[in-house]
Specification:
By secondary structure, the chain is of the alpha+beta class. It has twelve helices and nine strands. It starts with a strand and ends in a 5-residue tail after the last helix.
Amino acid sequence: METFGRYELLRKLAAGGMGQVYLARQKGPVGFQKLLVVKRLLPHLSEDDEFIQMFLDEARIAALLNHPNIAQIYDLGEVDGIYYIAMEYVHGEAIAEVNKRATQRKGAMPLALKCRVISDAAAGLDAAHHARSPSGRKLALIHRDVSPQNVLVGFNGAVKLIDFGVAKAINKFSQTTAGQIKGKHAYMSPEQAKGEPLDHRSDVFGLGTVFYELLTNTRLFKRETEIATLKAVVGTKVTPPSEAVQGIPKALDAVVLKALAKNRDERFATAGEMQLAIEDFLFKQQLPGTTAHLAAFMREIYAEELEEEFSNEPTIIAYDPRLPNRKAPPPLLDESAPTTQMPAHKPPYADAPASKPSTVNPIPKAPKATPAPKTSAESSNKETSKKTSRTGKGDK
């Protein structure tokens, strides 16, 4: 375990061309702990201004995104000349690994759950595409690297889109060189492969590629070389999923092929439209594809790993003996209940045994007797008394 600034790096999760990703723990006073992910720039790149600016752009852009299907950014900083980003820890696996595990354990991942993952990822993309700055300015954000490695599925069923490292926005500090290709070649759109200007429909194509591969368990555009892969992205005719694999309804072909249209004008106009098309398919087919179903499936296929992981969990929050002794809080009273609060002090005769309430019904009180009618003489005497009282004169 390495200490990095205010974080403890527990283990390395991944390493890429720009940085290393660690599972980390943030500790605070009185036993506060939080698991997160720390992504730090490689040391030899920390001296390159372009790479530093690109790395910082990722945090600045992603920090403005707040959506359940996008991993959150918590912190950005520098320790001993090494820049880092602290982000949300998604306790789960990338969709490519989930699909592989499902094939090994269950023969295949259910169709409804594949649709759930892509629909939720589309929701995250749509939120990113329509994101605005705090002042209300459109960010015009494009992910440009939608791939199976960047779609995570949590063991709680949550789907998170990650890694905006090669994203492009209007207010980006470091501008990408015109015509320069960044991202994974097998998941690029035709216009991206040709180095043309992009819009958010390029991400729709990338997500469509992920959807196709998830449905058919085959690589769509991947070839032996990068040039051959880019040519396949631009010119390969896509076989409908229902023809590639038996059991896929033809109704789903229209959704996948529309997302993979070579002409961007023929694709879904937004990722939100793609999400709605998938949700309509699930509804019409009456397929059980909720987040709860996905969570149950994840816990089933990763049951052994989860049991072992939790049994050796290094971040269990135990009782901290440094916590000061505090008095127990007073009991909460239900104001709606017909009861009264007992006084805090000890009442007199508190030690005397309390008498048991009687269970015998009390004797009902007799009704009041009706007064007898007054006689004329009594009325005359009373009237005389009233007159004497009013005048103040009378017999003493």
